[in-house]
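fyi for ur records
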Amino acid sequence: MADPQGHAQSPLLHSVDIADLRPTQMTVGMREVEQKRKEWRTLDVSKTGGFLGRHMIPVVRGPKSRNYVVDHHHLARALYEEGVKEVLTTTVADLRALEKDEFWTFLDNRGWMHPFDADGVRQPRTSLPKTVAHMEDDPYRSLAGELRFAGGYAKDTTPFSEFLWADALRRRVDSKTIKDDPDTALEQALAFAKSSAASYLPGWCGPHDRR
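which gave:
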């Protein structure tokens, strides 16, 4: 980016209190949050600043100049749990001029909100938590994350793609199995992911019929 005189400009970085970030989803997978917490603890103190600079939280600026998180909710929650006070954010859209109802309609139509509870049931947007600290655990979101890391499907740009997988797994893997036998739950998830029954999901990389 350059200024009117043609001089190169550095991108603006905004430091924001984690406690002030507004989630656009109701749940996270707490096993994935715990993994990110472990990764944070392995960092040398001298490298934490660089890590935060490489992992900026994407936000949309909304009414009352609030910052609404549209990705990296798990990282934000992990950093909050680790006692980190501030993060760097990058603004993907500035919608401060919109009225509240118009703002939320835009986010919904743009695929920038996911107001579904831990049972996969859509709730009013007023039920969205006010802080990342109040997002609830959805074990199926954890399973969906583990499934992707195990090669069950590819990373995809579809908004909330992991939640689409989580909802599919919710209908096929028993919750008791996830809690008591996570290895078996992952095996069942992998079997589904590699079948044609999962071909409608984003990032599916199962076998294709060549007939």
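The CA atoms of residues 65 and 96 lie 6 Å apart. thats all i got for now
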